[in-house]
Amino acid sequence: MYARNLPAELQSPTVALAERLDAACLFTTLGFEEPVVEVQRRSAASRPVVYVARRPAGPGGTRGDEMEPATATANPNVHSAASRGSGMQVDAVVLDIDGVLVDVGDSYRRAILESVDRVCGKPIDPAAVQAFKNAGGFNNDWELTDAAALFVLARREGLRMDIDEFTDRVRELGGGLDAAKEVVGDLPRVAQARVRDQWDRDALRETFQALYLGSELYRELEGGEPLIETDGYIHDEPTLVDPETITDLTARFDVGVLTGRPAVEADIALERVGFDVPDDRRFTMDDWEEGKPHPRALVELAERVDADRVAFAGDTLDDVRTARNADETDATRVYYGIGVLTGGLTGEAGREKFAASGADAVVEDVNELVELLE
Ligand SMILES: [Mg+2]
């Protein structure tokens, strides 16, 4: 028996019917509902998650009433319902910084748009930033800036794609800057060469850092003279997290941060929100090569605090994918991906995108974690 979007009240009767017929029973639930009957979770990596309430009797099958939890070695993707618990009984919480603890709409994202405009002489639509983020592989905002500039220059040299078509292709090719370069590879050779000549990554990065850090911090952190004299957008990053939330979460859980920011910029944001995170509980751009959605940093943080169940909350699809990837890679722990709607993804459309990427839950803001993780 297979039931799609099976509501909670029909799960027990459905399993009972399967038992009478001695049939296997599999189902999916609506949205993020956890099953109310005993199940095995068959697919942790994709949505919808298929729950196995009962396997058929006979050779190779297991009776529903004596169903054993799948062992980690047999199938790392399967966690028994018992091990997941009824809710998300986590013992560690890992938080993304941008779009979760601080609002970067008027800082990082603004710096991306303005750097492209200044260096390439043409503005891009603010929605383009989110389109790149959704394509995946753009956890590093310098690389996103490079890709957006590449799009502008390639258009100028004859690429016939709008931003949605371009970022769709980037996603299909695996995401990130390499995929963006590959899309531009569709242009004739001469046009490609012209794009390459105009693509000044150093100028883009220096402009970005000057705008973002402002002159004073630029001299201190980057060394040398900034291209532009400004106050810096980093000083305009509104806090998204209440002090009580930090107090509550750190009292109940081991809390770490995982961010694509360079370490010094992570310090500034954490100081701004009043969050004192020990060095061994943070992963920044300077601590690892791979970047999200690679699972290594999340798994390592979980190891360091000796956690069994880890919730990772972030504002992009790559954050949720990071949790999914960790869940697949690390058979000894359970990882939950939680989407936060205070970054580029908002409202109902944001919820749907998170759900489609395999989020275990979606919250309006990081402060909702206090209740969600009770
Ligand atoms: Mg973020």
Kindly describe this structure.
Mean pLDDT is 88; it is low at 58-86. This protein has 15 helices and eleven strands. Helix 13 links the parallel strand 9 and strand 10 (334-340). It has a six-stranded parallel β-sheet with strand order 8-7-6-9-10-11, with helices on both faces. Strands 1-2-4-3-5 form a five-stranded mixed β-sheet. The protein has helices spanning 8-21, 81-84, 108-120, 127-135, 141-156, 163-172, 176-184, 189-198, 201-222, 243-252, 263-273, 296-304, 317-329, 347-356, 369-372, and strands spanning 2-3, 25-27, 40-41, 51-54, 79-80, 92-95, 254-258, 282-283, 309-314, 334-340, 361-363. The structure holds magnesium ion.
SSE series: EHEEEEHEHHHHHHHHEHEHEHEHEH
Backbone shape:
globular
The averaged pLDDT comes out at: 88
The molecules bound to the chains, other than polymers, are: magnesium ion
Largest sheet: 6 strands, parallel
List low-confidence stretches.
58-86
What structural class do the secondary elements suggest? alpha/beta
Number of helices: 15
- How are the strands ordered across the major sheet? 8-7-6-9-10-11
Number of strands: 11
Percent strand: 5-15%
| Alpha-carbon distance between the two ends | 34 Å
Query: What value does the Rg take, in angstroms?
Result: 23 Å
Helical content (DSSP H or I, runs of 4+): 40-55%
